[in-house]
Amino acid sequence: MAYSGSGAKRKQEEKNLKLLRELAALLPNKHCFDCGQRGPTYVNMTIGSFCCTACSGILRGLNPPHRVKSISMATFTSEEVEFIRNRGNDECRKVWLGLYDGEVRFLDGMRDDQQIKDHLIKKYERKQWYVSPAEIAHQAKLMAQH
After folding, report:
1. Where does the record place the Arf-GAP domain (predicted)?
2. Which long-range contacts (C-beta less than 8 Å, at least 24 apart) are formed by 136-143?
3. Which residue, 54, 57, 124, 141, has fewest beta-carbon neighbours within 10 Å?
4. What are phi and psi of 128, to 5 degrees?
5. Rounded Cα gap, residues 121 and 44, in angstroms
């Protein structure tokens, strides 16, 4: 009996990994949300975005630390996959870079860890460009009425 439960669990984990890889293959998720590097290998479980190895390390060092998981080395629950599906880089961009003014240069492809860390502190600790999901929903509702 325990064997079939274990087999079912393994099957569900494989299904979750397949879904996660499909999400990672979507165009907005093909680059690190934080620095723009191509082919992110981690998921930021704190906000639901995809990130690269370098940024995953920096994110863990922020205050509060972000919870990141390796796509290839970790297992993901169905709830975690659903959380990521409902967010992803596009939705995270609306929230965490919602007030991004264009004058501030985005770090696409930049590999200077200190500059990236400074950018992430502004983004996550200071919430410099943050727009609450409730405000985003309210704005979308207003736009739909017009």
Report:
1. 14-139
2. 136/94, 136/95, 136/98
3. 141
4. -60, -35
5. 15
Average pLDDT (61-86) is 97
- Position 1 scores a pLDDT of 46
Residue 113: which CATH number?
1.10.220.150
Q: How many domains does the chain have?
A: 1
Secondary structure class of 82 (helix, strand, coil)? helix
69 within 8 A of 76, measured Cβ to Cβ: yes
Of 28, 52, 26, nearest to 116 (Cα)? 52
The three-class DSSP label of residue 84 is helix
pTM across the whole model: 0.87
- Where in the sequence is the domain holding 80, given as residue range(s)? 2-145
Q: Which two tokens stand for residue 66?
A: 């972000």
21-70 tens-digit pLDDT: 999 999 999 999 999 999 999 999 999 999 999 999 999 999 999 999 99
Q: Would you call 111 helix, strand, or coil by DSSP?
A: coil
Q: 122 has which bridge partners? A: none
Name the strands in the sheet holding 42-44, side by side, starting at the edge strand that comes first in the sequence: 49-51, 42-44, 68-70
The token duo for 70 is: 């390796």
